[in-house]
């Protein structure tokens, strides 16, 4: 587990905690690690969670198939990011989505009860984890609001421009890469893939953007932050 301490240290959960303290707290919190292969499920819809999880390598998607089989990608999890915290509280109900492995991954599981309860050794950074957990949940709520802003736009073009402009602002540059391929982007924005691809080509022909696979260059001014 020691080789993953630097990644855990960079996660929001261990923000402000040194690598030495992080390594010590892995044992204090009874952390368990598990490897997953591409295509496997870390969690499935309907499961009940009692752990907070941190991805230390690979890539995951939080997604859901509707009754008709349409895929909706809600979020992507990258190394150092936490997930599952919204379902770890008592009486929070079953998981509403699947967590699917996109690239071979390693995941750490932390028992929520051990995070929220002061440990016998009374390590001085334990209360900081609780505060970090609160901040993480707040940040996740903001990300969900940002996604709602994209998918509630009326047209496919408006959804694309909303999402791509937001990604450019996050990267601080009009040239950037997104974490999705075409099918995944269509699922994330809740649009038809063919219609989205056609719209991207029209936008390119109109000089609004350039793209090569998942790399984009916006040719329009970004809105002021």
Report on the structure:
The protein has seven helices and nine strands; from the N terminus they run H-H-E-E-E-E-E-E-H-H-H-E-H-H-E-E. With 225 residues, the protein is an alpha+beta fold. It folds into two domains: 2-143, Jelly Rolls; 153-218, Arc Repressor Mutant, subunit A (Orthogonal Bundle), CATH 1.10.10.10. The strands form two sheets. Strands 1, 2, 3, 4, 5 and 6 form a six-stranded antiparallel beta sheet that branches. The chain has a three-stranded antiparallel beta sheet with strand order 7-9-8. A hairpin with a 5-residue loop joins strand 3 (51-65) and strand 4 (71-77).
Helix fraction?
25-40%
Largest sheet: 6 strands, antiparallel
Query: Unreliable stretches, pLDDT < 50, 5 or more residues?
Result: none
Overall shape: it is: elongated
Topology as a string of helices (H) and strands (E): HHEEEEEEHHHEHHEE
Number of domains: 2
What is the gyration radius calculated from CA atoms? 19 Å
Specify the CATH homologous superfamily of the largest domain: Jelly Rolls
The CATH architecture assignment of the largest domain turns out to be Sandwich
Q: What percent strand?
A: 25-35%
* Secondary structure: number of strands: 9
What top-tier CATH class of the largest domain fits best? Mainly Beta
pLDDT average, as an integer? 86
Give the number of helices. 7
Would you give the CATH topology of the largest domain? Answer: Jelly Rolls
Report how far the terminal alpha carbons are from each other: 40 Å
Structural class: alpha+beta
């Amino acid at each position: 587990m020691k080789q993953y301490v630097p990644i855990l240290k960079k996660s929001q959960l261990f923000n402000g905690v040194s690598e030495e303290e992080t390594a010590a707290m892995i044992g204090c919190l009874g952390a368990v690690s598990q490897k997953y292969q591409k295509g496997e499920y870390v969690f499935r819809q309907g499961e009940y969670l009692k752990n907070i999880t941190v991805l230390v390598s690979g890539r995951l998607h939080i997604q859901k198939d509707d009754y008709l089989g349409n895929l909706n990608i809600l979020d992507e999890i990258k190394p150092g990011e936490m997930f599952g915290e919204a379902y770890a509280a008592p009486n929070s109900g079953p998981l509403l989505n699947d967590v699917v492995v996109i690239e071979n991954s390693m995941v750490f599981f932390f028992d929520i009860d051990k995070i929220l309860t002061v440990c016998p050794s009374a390590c001085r950074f334990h209360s900081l984890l609780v505060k970090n957990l609160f901040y993480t949940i707040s940040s996740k709520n903001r990300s969900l609001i940002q996604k709602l802003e994209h998918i509630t736009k009326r047209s496919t073009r408006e959804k694309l421009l909303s999402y791509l402009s937001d990604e450019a602002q996050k990267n601080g540059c009009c040239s950037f890469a997104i974490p999705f391929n075409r099918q995944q982007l269509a699922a994330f924005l809740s649009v038809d893939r063919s219609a989205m691809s056609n719209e991207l080509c029209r936008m390119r022909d109109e000089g609004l953007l350039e793209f090569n696979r998942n790399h984009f260059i916006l040719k329009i001014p970004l809105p002021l932050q």
